[in-house]
Write a structure and sequence with these properties.
Mean pLDDT: 95
Shape: globular
Order of helices and strands: EEHHEEEEHHHEEHHEHEHEEEEEEEHH
Low-confidence stretches: none
Number of domains: 1
Structural class: alpha+beta
CATH architecture: 4-Layer Sandwich
Number of helices: 11
CATH superfamily: Chorismate synthase AroC
């Protein structure tokens, strides 16, 4: 019901995103969308590109008078850096002598695999689409999904758990994650100031050595009702959908739901969340002692906060490049260097928020339906009453 895709290249004129299936009558807050784009550009360890771009979303269709009208939404994010690349990457034939080749593939990037797949003699066109710059378009339409979810009382945010060798080992309460969102300055987006300072020192260390740094972010979806997703078919399970959505982000190499990794090394008595019945207000009167399941059991949301972790590899472009091979001569050389970041874990968390929000919005619309927000909210409220009466 909810479909989306993006287009555009890293150094092209613009990124474009399309979102189809959003009900009519959803209020669109332009300032909120642009702040989400701003959040993606923040974080200690970002590179020179963030000094050039000031991302804003220009909505082209599907919204009138700041309200969705039921038709497909399209939006554009201009690349300010395009002025520096217009002659190097023209749409028309242009001057081949001005083309900026990527002469040697970077280990860990899509350069070599993409060149082999598309039969290009070098990696410029591969880099242009494989770049994480594309995630800005996802963040923009993810912001629209967040606005939809807010109408259902659902919020989606992220925080950083690990940067390099520094890890925050405690589970962070929603209130602390929510407080991070209100900050005007973003360093590593860690909920514990002391741990964040040690993370910053890790970034400083790799800055001095010309290396790059990965880490772990956690996306938390708060106030998700039980019943999204299903065990009925393999490709309809909520955990599978979320894992695929987060794994699709550039540089994410593993995804974890709840305490999934630790659970593999623990006895069942320490893993499964015991059930109680306490009659307290909420979606239902059933309660849990813990949330090791990360809010999902059997492919279905269970009413607890959904917690999804993404494991981000270090950025592939290094200021002190690794060994590679020249595309033309096949001789050993150092890998190509493009202006790049050193650490993007906080930004990746924001992009993952967008993917989680889009996935939850899709599942919510599949369950509650509705061509207008009035219809969707009526169905949602009826379901919430059904849960209370269970």
């Amino acid at each position: 019901m909810l479909r989306y895709f993006t287009a555009g290249e890293s150094h092209g004129e613009a990124l474009v995103a399309f979102l189809s299936g959003m009900p009519a009558g959803l209020k669109i807050d332009q300032a909120f969308v642009d702040r989400e784009l701003w959040r993606r550009q923040q974080g200690y360890g970002r590179g020179g590109r963030m000094k050039i771009e000031r991302d804003t979303a220009h909505i082209l269709s599907g919204v009138r008078h700041a309200i969705t009208i039921g038709s497909p939404i399209s939006l554009q994010i201009a690349n300010r850096d395009w002025k520096n690349w217009e002659e190097s990457l023209p749409v028309a034939a242009g001057d081949p002598a001005k083309h900026k080749r990527v002469a040697s593939p970077r280990p860990g990037h899509a350069d070599l695999a993409g060149a082999l797949k598309y039969n290009f003699p070098e990696a410029r066109y591969i880099l242009e689409r494989a770049s994480a710059r594309e995630s800005a378009a996802r963040v923009a339409i993810g912001a629209l999904a967040k606005l939809f979810l807010r109408e259902l009382g659902i919020e989606v945010l992220s925080h950083v758990i690990t940067t390099g060798a520094v890890t925050l080992h405690e589970e962070v309460a929603w209130e602390k994650i929510r407080a991070l969102y209100d900050q005007d300055e973003v360093l590593l987006n860690c909920a514990d100031p002391d741990t964040e300072q040690r993370m910053k020192e890790e970034v400083d260390k790799v800055l001095r050595t010309g290396d790059s740094l990965g880490g772990v972010f956690e996306v938390v979806a708060h106030q998700v009702p039980p019943g999204l997703g299903t065990y009925a078919q393999w490709d309809e399970r909520l955990d599978g959908l979320l894992a695929a959505a987060v794994m699709s982000l550039q540089a994410v190499k593993a995804v974890e739901i709840g305490s999934g990794v630790a659970a593999a090394f623990s006895p069942g008595s320490q893993v499964h969340d015991e059930i109680g019945y306490n009659g307290t207000p909420g979606f239902t009167a059933f309660s849990r002692a813990h949330n090791n399941a990360g809010g999902i059991e059997g492919g279905i949301s269970n009413g607890q906060d959904i917690r999804v972790r993404g494991y981000l590899k270090p950025i592939s472009t290094l200021r002190r490049p690794l060994q590679s091979v020249d595309f033309s001569t096949r001789e050993p050389v150092k890998a190509a260097y493009e202006r790049s970041d050193v650490c993007v874990v906080p930004a990746a968390g924001v992009a993952a928020e967008a993917m989680v929000a889009l996935t939850l919005a899709r599942c919510a619309l599949e369950k509650f339906g509705g061509d207008s927000m009035t219809e969707t909210l009526r169905n949602f409220q009826g379901y919430c009453q059904q849960l209370k009466n269970f």
